[in-house]
Amino acid sequence: MATDALSVSELDVCYGQSQVVHRLSMNLQEGRVLALLGRNGAGKSTSLNTFAGLHQARAGSIRLAGRPVERLSPEGIARAGMRLVPQGRRIFPSLTVLENLQVAEQAARANDDGKHAWNLERVYATFGRLKERMRQRAGTLSGGEQQMLAIGRALMGNPRVLLLDEPSEGLAPLIVAEVAQAIKMLKADRLSIVLVEQNFNLALEVADDVVVLNTGHVVHAGSADAVRAEPELATRHLGVF
Ligand SMILES: Nc1ncnc2c1ncn2[C@@H]1O[C@H](COP(=O)(O)OP(=O)(O)OP(=O)(O)O)[C@@H](O)[C@H]1O
Asked: Which is one Pfam family of this protein (predicted)?
């Protein structure tokens, strides 16, 4: 059987004495999108940040294409092929679109193996809007364009796994549809994606697999098809939908 792109096993994460993720296990197969859902405070961002090395897990393992990464630094994990697009996007607002992408490119090339599957041209081909706006300061882009730029920056590092933390946050419905399109394109490119979302409809539109967290515990895991057929499987844990 093929090795999973990302395999998380029995992960415990704490802030001080307070445990916020309990024995989280999940597997992401290559070229698939796994939606990690849950109410506010369920532990979704904490989980994603732990995968990316920003928090140390108290216990458990995180394997990227079979390789344990839970002891690596965030930079080491990024180099190994897993990139986080954080909540709030964190682009450089005073730099242009092009400069933002170039900074990401330089950081990636300083320590890679010479293979550049993603480059400026390919990012522009994927997100035409970024090409149109390449001389514009990133801080003046719309929310949706900033999200595309944040994803573009991550792609410049040639990830095999992308971690997307609430990409639709604060975006108008039309723009959310563009984000959904972008995620589908990346999936068609065989990227493997963990998507944290409050937007249930967006998540179900693009996901293959669904994991629902409630106060840091997995309360549902299964195929997105099953949730599409019976939304109640997930919605009863999500409250607001
Ligand atoms: N730096 C921190 N120190 C202490 N507790 C934290 C910290 N960050 C988050 N928490 C707590 O950990 C729990 C999980 O938070 P987390 O941000 O992972 O949830 P989430 O599911 O991503 O929710 P949201 O959608 O609101 O971002 C919450 O109870 C939160 O208050």
From this structure: ABC_tran
User: What rounded mean pLDDT belongs to the chain?
Assistant: 91
Residue whose CA is closest, atom 30 of ligand 1?
A: 41
Domains and CATH numbers, the chain: 6-235 (3.40.50.300)
Are 5 and 62 in contact by the 8 Å Cβ rule? The answer is no
**Taking the model in full, what pTM does it have?**
0.93
Ligand 1 centroid from CA 40, angstroms:
8
Residue 196 backbone phi and psi in degrees, to 5: -95, 125
Q: How remote is the C-alpha of 57 from its chain's centroid?
A: 18
Distance CA 77, CA 7 (A): 14
194-212 pLDDT, tens per residue?
A: 999 989 999 999 999 999 9
Distance 145 CA to ligand 1 centre (A): 26
Q: Which atom of ligand 1 is nearest to the CA of 47?
A: 18
Ligand 1 centroid to Cα of residue 20, in Å, is 8
Residue with tokens 């293959």: 208
Position in ligand 1 atom list of the atom nearest CA 213: 21
Structure tokens at 223: 């195929």
CB 25 within 8 A of CB 9: yes
Give strand pairing partners of 223. 209
Q: Residue 224 has what pLDDT?
A: 96
